[in-house]
Amino acid sequence: MLFIFISAAFANDIINTQAIQTIKQDTSDINCTLKGIELFLSDKTNYKTYCSAIKWTQPDLSVYIEKGASQLPSECVALIPPPPTTEQAKTK
What we know:
This protein is mainly α and about 90 residues long. It has 4 helices and no strands.
């Protein structure tokens, strides 16, 4: 009887560990997807605002999710002003 109790407790620990790993992976996947969406929208806005004269076709959202980086061409990135510093943001 003790063996069954110990086995059940051990099995429960394994199931809990697997559930935790699944949740961690799901959370990581969600974070990658959200970052991809943010980059996709940022590139779309920056392209329209700063470098629409440059020929560029925006890749599919899946590219942003997979690579996790801006896909704008370097000549476009060079035209985008840097974000304001903390001090500049406070004075606005």
